[in-house]
TrEMBL record:
Domain of life: Eukaryota
Name of this protein: ATPase domain-containing protein
Spans traversing the lipid bilayer: 6-27
Origin species: Diversispora epigaea
The keyword NAD appears for this protein: no
SUPFAM superfamilies in the cross-refs: P-loop containing nucleoside triphosphate hydrolases
Keywords (A to Z) from UniProt: Membrane, Transmembrane, Transmembrane helix
Pfam families registered for this protein in UniProt: ATPase_2 (PF01637)
GO terms, molecular function: ATP binding
Annotated ATPase domain residues: 86-281
Length: 414
């Protein structure tokens, strides 16, 4: 009996010793992995921060399709926008119709301290595009245990936060940049129009953050837009108080258009006739030059222009027997007399704000935030009106004499 008790005692001691050493080993393993994990997370965060700062210092390197027509004054003005002084406290808005050359000119002006983000057509990829512009890895901030706890999150919701995480990362980098160089970093959001239909909340957050960080002199945002809807939305919000006067980029003037057609497309004899169809709109000039070089006649090219304009008038409900025909005629009459009218007068010609907004969005008329005026959207629209004068006006005598100098950067704030 005593012998059995002694054996049990020895076994008990062995069990206790085994438990002690096992628990000690588990204790050691736990803390070793914990600190190893924390060290790795710290290292990755520091590595990401260094990449962020270097990306901002270097600036986004962009390839631009350089036109044969230099627009030096605009490029120099953009460069001044992209290199703010240390106390700048406002953000910028750049506008102009599609095909006016905004993006090309902006790319030519981007340099050190400037991050360029092109908002993609598939908005769900915005976060990835944002991160790519920053050379930023999305594995930051969280350690492995934290990550394991987050695995239950819905993947779609995770993706929706990427742009916000990228913005927060940019702000960290911008603070470091400001501390080192004593001036704000700059971030450019191109094609913000793509946020207008389904993602206005993102636009609002970007605008609010632009206002807050302009106040704090941390970074300066630049929004680039081609649609009136975006501008009217931004101007209606309190964050507009920190927006600088909008810069509007127009098309080429007649002399530049002739030079563009001659040097870029080797068209000289018929250049003026092509210009009369589309004016100085670069994308329009490129399109008609392409058709002409394919052997199409001026008449056939003009017919295509008329068809495109008809579709716009139809979309705006300005054709005969359509909802806005009579109001549209009054606008056209006013514009034939003065080329531009105030936005207030334009609104007065429609029954309510919904109607005027519907017409303005159809690209028959163009809103100029730099002057707070409305004009015909393009020379193609004027060409259509000349051909359809029996429908819209009694007497039309239009000439393309109201051209905007392509080297003029118009700014105004209301």
């Amino acid at each position: 009996m005593k012998q059995a008790s002694a054996v049990l005692g020895i076994i008990g001691i062995l069990v206790v010793l085994f438990s002690f050493f096992c628990s000690k080993d588990l204790f050691y393993t736990y803390y070793r992995n914990k600190y190893k994990d924390l060290f790795y997370t710290y290292y990755r965060n520091k590595y990401n921060d260094r990449r962020l700062i270097k990306a901002i210092e270097k600036g986004t390197r962009l390839k631009a399709d350089i036109s044969v027509i230099p627009r030096t004054l605009i490029v120099e003005h953009l460069k001044s926008i992209f290199q703010p002084d240390s106390n700048q406290s406002f953000y910028h808005v750049i506008c102009g119709e599609y095909g006016s050359g905004k993006t090309t000119l902006v790319k030519l002006a981007v340099s050190c301290g400037v991050i360029y983000v092109d908002i993609p057509s598939y908005i769900e990829d915005f976060g990835l595009a944002f991160g790519k512009a920053l050379n930023f890895s999305f594995e930051e901030w969280i350690s492995f245990p934290q990550l394991s706890r987050k695995l239950g999150d819905i993947y779609e919701d995770f993706n929706k936060t990427l742009w916000w995480r990228a913005l927060k990362a940019f702000k960290r980098g911008a603070r470091a940049y400001k501390a080192k160089y004593n001036k704000p970093a700059v971030i450019i959001y191109d094609n913000v129009d793509r946020l207008v239909h389904k993602n206005l909340e993102i636009l609002d957050i970007l605008q609010d953050d632009a206002k807050d960080n302009a106040d704090d002199r941390i970074y300066i945002a630049v929004f680039i837009s081609s649609e009136d809807t975006i501008l009217r939305r931004m101007k209606s919000r309190s964050s507009w108080s920190r927006a600088e006067m909008p810069m509007e980029i127009g098309g080429l003037n007649k002399e530049e258009s002739m030079k563009y057609l001659a040097e870029k497309h080797k068209i000289t004899e018929e250049a003026e006739k092509l210009y009369e169809l589309v004016g100085g709109h670069i994308l329009g000039l490129t399109a008609v030059a392409h058709d002409f070089l394919l052997g199409k006649s001026i008449e056939d090219i003009g017919a295509k222009i008329l068809l495109d304009a008809y579709d716009k008038f139809n979309s705006a409900k300005l054709l005969e027997d359509q909802k806005h025909h009579e109001a549209g005629k009054r606008v056209i009459d006013a514009l034939l007399s003065s080329k531009e009218i105030s936005i207030e007068k334009f609104k007065e010609l429609f029954a309510n704000e919904e109607e005027y907004g519907e017409v303005l969005e159809a690209n028959v008329f163009a809103f100029h935030p730099s002057r707070n005026t409305v004009s015909f959207q393009s020379q193609s629209i004027e060409y259509y009106i000349r051909k359809r004068s029996d429908v819209f006006v009694e007497l039309v005598n239009l000439t393309p004499d109201n051209e905007f100098n392509s080297n003029y950067a118009s700014t105004s704030k209301s």
